Amino acid sequence: MTSYQLASVVGRRARAARLRRLLRGKLVLVAAGAVVALVVLAAVFAPLIAPYDPNAVDPMAVSQGSSAAHWLGTDDTGRDIASRLLHGARPSLLAPLVVTVGAGLVGTALAVAAAWLGGWWDRAITAVLDVVFGFPGLVLAVVGAAVFGAGLKIAVLTLTIAYLPYVARVVRGSALKERNLPYVAALRMLGLGGGRIVLRHVVPNLLPLVLVQTATAFGYTLLDVAAFSFIGLGAQPPTAEWGLMVAQGAPGILAGAPQESLYAGLAIVVFVVACSLLGAGLSQRLTGGER
């Protein structure tokens, strides 16, 4: 085999390997996106596709297994688990959405303000974020529940505060780099004000990073919301919510009827994994992580 032929073979193998890596990454990203989209659609159209009222009690169908009448069985009061899962997707997704959007907007605003203003503004904002970062979300939720009472709204508020540093600390570093780039100095020389430069140029350039952070945090936020409901600080009965369903179905595990906790827990795990894979894929493509 000549050197030219050897080089051609090596080149073809290298291209094939790159193609396999690319397709594998895209397939994972597409699959994760499809799972997320499917769950979102199920939550949106839950009233149309759920076979029963999620809170309808049937004393004659207590703790039944899967059947033609009840696809995923019933809970300890005879409520249809499939219907409760579909309706439970609404608060289970809406609460993390509010948390991630709120933390993303406020965290980005604080990060950009700290990086752009500098000086004591930067030190003060960073100090506040460091203090918040030191308090776990569960501790804040307990404090909020003790002051205002347990409920999903309080859990959302405390989680939004808890997730602020996770967005702001990362965005601040990128905002500092963005501020020192030559195009910012050129815009200043052209007479553009600081506010206009930030809103029309700096923030749009930071949006991919913010999107990656919020997409990755969404799954973990859903897990935290479910955990708060599980310990009684989030959604309250008879609300259909995944974390609460896991808690309510726990006694049935030892009684031989684990379906409520099983299916609700499986829904949480699948969605969190899909969000993590989606966030990782977006990170590679939007922030230049893919080579």
Automatic annotation (TrEMBL):
Any single biological process term in GO: transmembrane transport
The keyword Membrane appears for this protein: yes
Bilayer disposition of the protein: Multi-pass membrane protein
Annotated localization: Cell membrane
Listed GO CC annotations: plasma membrane
The organism's place on the tree of life at top rank: Bacteria
Ranges of residues in domain ABC transmembrane type-1: 93-279
Swiss-Prot/TrEMBL keywords: Cell membrane, Membrane, Transmembrane, Transmembrane helix, Transport
Transmembrane segments: 27-50, 93-117, 124-148, 154-171, 263-282
Protein family: Belongs to the binding-protein-dependent transport system permease family.
PANTHER family named in the record: OLIGOPEPTIDE TRANSPORT SYSTEM PERMEASE PROTEIN APPC, PEPTIDE ABC TRANSPORTER PERMEASE PROTEIN
UniProt-recorded name of the protein: Peptide/nickel transport system permease protein
